[in-house]
Amino acid sequence: MANQALPRPRFEAPDPERGTKAIPKPETSTAPLLAGKVSEVPDALFGGAMRLCGLAVVGILALIVFELLRGSDLSWHAFGWKFFGLQDWNPVEDKYGALPFIYGTIVSSLLSLVIAVPLSIGVAVFITEMCPESLRGILSFLTELLAAIPSVVYGLWAIFVLVPLLREYVQPFLGKTLGWTGLFSGPPYGVGMLAAGVILAIMIIPIISSITREVMTVVPQHQREAVLALGSTRWEMIRIGVLRNARAGIVGGIILGLGRALGETMAVTMVIGNRAEIAKSLFAPGYTMASVLANEFSEATGDLYLSALIEIGLALFLVTIVVNALARLMVWSVTRGQPARSTV
Amino acid sequence: MASAISIPNPTIIPPISWRRRTLDHVMTAVSILTVAIVLAPLLAIFGYLVYKGIGSINIAFLTQTPKPVGEAGGGMANAIVGSAFILAIASLMGVPMGIGAGIFLSEYGRNRYGDAVRFVSDVLNGVPSIVIGIVAYGLVVIRQKHFSALAGGVALAIMMVPTIARTTEQMLLLVPQAIREAAYGLGVSRWRTTLSITLRTATSGVITGVMLAFARVAGETAPLLFTAFGNQFWNLKADQPTAALSLQIYTYALSPFDDWHRQAWAGSFVLIVLIVSAVAAVRYVVRRGRLAGA
């Protein structure tokens, strides 16, 4: 089963046989063996076409940037930096401020990390360090199966199962025990920031745990043995020998999960309540950058309205690019430069 | 030499203290608990999908188009076909380009330019799908002046390219250099070697990568919202709004009608079955073909 929906960053060993030089052209010496002389034209054409495909990948990125900049031009000139600080979103009066959406995106993503990180690390530790061999394959298959479910199906499940569960049991309980913090106050609607955070957490657990597992596997076996030889318990071995060595990679995996949570659209839109307000309570409905795009983009009348939406898209794009680039670099810093190939 | 190593008297090593041993047991328990907590929603989601989905599917669902708002009955036949149509358009554009980029990375890109393309495609992988929807809207919908299957296809193709490029690259890198050299030694030109030897050897891996990308975009909804847009009727014209299964699930899930909720579950079940069976079928064919060829 191909169940990894997320291609993982992999370590490319500098292969001594392959090197970085181009493969030497064989035509000159071997051509006489063939009936006719091998033409170099098809080779050049093919090489050119493949280079063009490679260039197209960069071109797509450039195109995305170009389209977003062009589309958001109008709104940028109308509001400037203030756009990201204004709170009201009023298409009728043509006034737009992105703050409630930025707030909603950040809070829902952070909430999902708070839930997902301990769980993912726990799962990764269990699978790599404690699990009996026979269970390992099944467990990693199951956790990665979570990544293969389309986001709209998560949303559907959240509407009909998760939200009623939160409304009937979880929210009243949290309100009673932790209501004094102000984070869990107000009427339990079910839909709202908390529901969005939970469904996001379920969606990013496979990402974080699979990357955590990967970097934990890269930690050399002798690190574990060294700690055990000092008379440690298994948990101390995991904490000192494994988790500490894999720290940077785990953080990278967490940031990668964050990148996914920031841009996740459908499931969040279906359960967050879609109200452009900033509220302290996690029970209150909110709105994220991605869900305002999903809800209002196709109905946006007026150039400024559309432009403001595209500017939100641009901001979302830039944030996820930075977050993802950071994450890739951190994961690479762990998996690169180690004799990883021999253990895999 | 051996006498230089002093073997410690076992009685001198202090026993592992009660606290450390308890902590060890507690952490083991916590870790098992997290597995249980993570597996619970997974099993719940699959359970509900199968339970609600199978109970909701009927002949009408698979053969009819949606009924007007509020009326019970009808089905998603046009959305199932529409999804396949959009995916076909996307694959037609995305697969060749992705494989080409993969060939570039593995055969021509062992240098700085390759590194740049590699990094860009990893970054593209993380771009939120809704943002790609905006781009396809700007590129296609604004020019055509209306929503279309083509726009949806373009959006999904953009999402497929980086995934396919990276997996193709990894699969081609697994092909031993000696095989390429053998081909060169016979006087085969480089392009012919790449296509008939290297790519051929890695076929099953490359196809697996393509299916991975396919499965990933097949359930996408966000980039289709304002590109393919959805349609209540049959449509197989590339320049017209087209229904898609995922869009239909979204609309029906948020509707106030019980019958539409039922159909949303049925649609989700069909979507997952289609994705899984498409992947399984291609893998089966590839595996059998490879075995027959070898």
Rg over alpha carbons of chain A: 25 Å
For the largest interface, the chains and their residue counts are:
A-B, 111 and 110 residues
Number of helices of chain B: 11
Look at the structure and give the CATH class of the largest domain in chain B: Mainly Alpha
CATH class of chain A: Mainly Alpha
Tell me what you see in this structure:
The complex is a heterodimer of chains A (344) and B (294). By secondary structure, chain A is mostly helical. Chain A has a single domain, classed as MetI-like (MetI-like fold). Chain A contains 13 helices and two strands; from the N terminus they run ααββααααααααααα. In chain A, strands 1-2 form a two-stranded antiparallel sheet. In chain A, strand 1 (89-90) and strand 2 form a beta hairpin. In chain A, helix 3 (99-130) packs across helix 6, helix 6 packs antiparallel against helix 9 (247-263) and helix 9 (247-263) packs antiparallel against helix 12. Chain A is globular and about 70 Å long. The radius of gyration of chain B is 26 Å and the shape is flat. Chain B folds into two domains: 18-56; 76-293, MetI-like fold (Orthogonal Bundle). Chain B has helices at residues 18-56, 59-63, 77-108, 112-125, 129-144, 149-174, 177-185, 190-201, 203-218, 245-254, 258-293. Chains A and B meet through helix 2, helix 3, helix 4, helix 5 and helix 6 of A and helix 1, helix 3, helix 4, helix 5 and helix 6 of B.
